[in-house]
Structures are given as structure tokens and as C-alpha cells.
Amino acid sequence: MELFTNQVLAGIATGAIYACMALAVVMIYQAIDHLNFAQGEMAMFSTFISWQLMQWGVPYWWSFLLTLAISFAGGILIERLLFKPLAKAPVLTNVAGFIALFAIVNSVAGLTWDFTIKQYPTPFGSSPFLGSQLISTHQVGMIGVTLLMLIGLYLFFQFTRIGLAMRAAAALPESARLVGVNTSWMIALGWGMASAIGAVAGILIAPVVFLEPNMMGGVLVYGFAAAVLGGLSSPLGAVMGGFLVGVFENLAGTYIPGVGNELKLPIALALIITVLVFKPAGLFGRAIVKRV
């Protein structure tokens, strides 16, 4: 029973990271109807920025906030320079743009900071939480920061004019334009927020997986799995999917014979395929019907 509880708690902690990544993926998907294959690399680059700021003597939480601001601005810049001109381009053109962005960001990070593994600090420590061996203080910190961010996003989208405008632009862009919403800039803001959310995921997971240019590859796959499981049309579903994937991954690695750590990633891919086959809209998503 203790092993089961330990795996569930550890799964919730890693699931918090997958929830952040899935939410970032869903925000961009709702804005432009495409999956951002470079979301993980953008998060990795933001994490390197945070690490570099700390190397220059900036305290952890100041570097955290500065990185979020830089990531937000960088997400808007990428959307304005690269994907706004591709707004009416074919799907494969956008896919090529995402793949190019993936390769560029990864290469620039490797050229700037090289491909050696670096230690990334945690402000929470790694000791057992309240003396319990079931979960560490860093894992509790991961869950706490993620929940605070999700609550803040919920309040933003529910009770602010910009948040409501962003929701309208994503759900009914034509109607939103008719009532004066600048849908183009709402999409750009969505990119900025998705980039900042991805930065949170990268910063929180870096002490666990260590810092290097390929650190977010597996995390992005799990984020995609979480987004598909929860529903690409549902931000709340993406968050729930992240926690479910985290717990499922840990329990599968522990209790399914022959799985171990090596087959956890294929399990995530199998989960994506299974959900797409039996429930394409996801557990919490809604099927979109278009009149033709």
C-alpha cells in the first residue's frame, strides 16, 4: 500500500508538469487549430534563460519572474514574425514552420549553452516532505506552483475583460470581431501566455531531469498525451489529463511486468492512439460539428 501511495503522489507531481505542458499546447491549438511541436523546445530555452540569470547572480524567484516575462514577450514575437504570416497557409506549411522552429531553438540553445548536462537548483529542497518518505519537498513545490498558476489563469479567463476577449476569440472569432475584439492580438497574447506556462513547466522539471537542450522531448510527448486524453477543446480537460497521465505512467511502470522506465514513453504514445481511436474529442472535450 505504501508503494502504491508513493507512486500516486509522485505521479501527481510529474502530472503537474504534464498539465502545464498540455495547457500550453491546448491554448495554441485553440488559437490557430495547430499543435505546436516546438512547445517543449521553447520551454527548454526559457529554462536556460532562467539558469543564465541565476549564473549572473539574480535570485531564484526574481529569475523565475523575469523568465516568465521574457518568455511571454518571446511567444508574442514568434507569433507575430512567423505564424501570423502563415495564418491562411496550408496545414503542412504550418507543420513545417513548427518543425523549423523546433530545430532552430534546439540548435541555438546547444550553440549558446552547449549540450552538456547542467544542475538546476530548486528553492524547495529535496528532503522528505514533513518527514514522510512518500513525497519530497520539491515535488510538493511543483504541485503548489502549478495549482497557484492554474487558479490565477482561471480567475484571469473568468473575470477579466482581456480573458473573456481571448475566450471569445478562440471560440467564435467571427462574432468576436463583430463586437470589436482584435482577434489577431488575442491570438498573440495566447502565444505569449502559452510560452510563459511552458517556461513554468521547464523550470519546475529541470531539477529532476537536469538541464540540457533535449530535456523536454519526453515531457512534450506526455503533454500531447495529456492534451489528447483531456480534450484539445478543453483547457480544464488538458489539466486533468496531465494529472491522469502522470499517475498512469507511474503505476504502469511499477505494476505492469516488463514496462519499467524504458517503455513509459511508448505507453504515452499508445495512450494517444487509443484515445484518438475510441474518443477523438477526449474525456472532457466536445465534438465540434460544422455545417457544410
Account of the protein in words:
The chain is globular, with a radius of gyration of 19 Å. The protein has eleven helices and no strands. It has helices at 2-32, 39-55, 60-83, 91-113, 137-159, 161-171, 173-178, 183-209, 217-230, 235-255, 264-278. It has one domain. With 292 residues, it is mainly alpha-helical. It is found in: Cell membrane.
Features:
single chain, 73% helix, 0% strand, 292 residues, 11 helices, ABC transporter permease, mainly alpha
Oligomerization state:
single chain
Uncertain stretches: none
Tally of strands:
0
- What is the strand content? under 5%
What integer value in Å does the Rg equal? 19 Å
- Overall, the morphology is globular
Family: Belongs to the binding-protein-dependent transport system permease family. LivHM subfamily.
Main location: membrane
Keywords: Amino-acid transport, Cell membrane, Membrane, Transmembrane, Transmembrane helix, Transport
GO molecular function, one term: transmembrane transporter activity
